[in-house]
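TICKET #2291
ISSUE: user wants both folds in one file
ATTACHMENT 1:
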Amino acid sequence: MIRVSEKAEFYERVAAGQAAVWPVAHGVSFVSRREHHDWGIALHIDSRTLQPQQLRGALERRFTQSHLFPDYFLSLDSQRDFVVWHAAPLTVQSGGALDDICEHQLMLAGVGGVV
């Protein structure tokens, strides 16, 4: 997986359907990857960085404000990292749609001021 340091480069990888990781803060990264049949963006929060009640808060936001977070999927991976995944748009003509996805992922996860 390619590690990138800039948002524009990460978005290029997402648009091209290429796996990449973009670390945005200690223990917090965006990952471009396939889940099931769709290519998308996963926000990863390292289990050692995860704050108490952060997962519970994300679940509450996901279901009490579902109109803000349609098609966002929450999970813990095999390392117990918290993951918020969303499919990428079929065509990426500008970074606006990807910005919206990343912004909503951070909001849903309760991580503010990272990007």
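ATTACHMENT 2:
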Amino acid sequence: MFLIYHRLYGLDSITLRISEDCSLVTESQVILLLDTNNNQTREDYNTRLTAIRRTVEQIKTYNPDANIGMFSYSDELEQVFTLSWSADIDELISAALKVRIDIGKTISNTSHALKHIRESNLFNSSRNLVVLFSNARWNNLDEIDLEIQLSKQQDIHIFGVAAGEDCDKDNLAGVLNDPSFMFYVDDDDFTSLKSLASITKYYNCTDDIFKKRQ
């Protein structure tokens, strides 16, 4: 984050020596949350599964220290694999791709899924992320928005991947409240997921870093 401030404020006279003032933190935990309601086309659902596969590949390649867990949900939440289940990319992808659309359920209770994750004490990392994959055709946006705000207060940050032609991008962007928290997948272009992976690493700098380098 300090590098962003360095560019924004033009602090060219300050020489930042990362090795002395900042440490790279790679410990992150990421939960993938997949909406399996039956109110979505199989083609678009498969696009979201592909986005999950690419997300796993990007995260584990960029940051092998990141732990990935996964849940699926329609009206109820189901665990696909835990955060500590495997570090193997192929195993994680294989398990994720086995999740099918919930034929009997046309409802996606996203707020309930987010609440369950928030209240279950699943995270014990310094960076805790939930990545939502859904067509976002919700009619309870206020409830979802509330859960995202409550999660943020507990240092759980919710991101969204807009994948599939049936995805309501306005709904997804609206509840995330920050355009940088949404990653677009268009056609077969999954480039944005590299940026998502990069969030799993960050520099932790001393509070007085700018004063020290003046």
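RESOLUTION: both attachments delivered.
EXTRA DETAIL ON ATTACHMENT 2: The radius of gyration is 18 Å.
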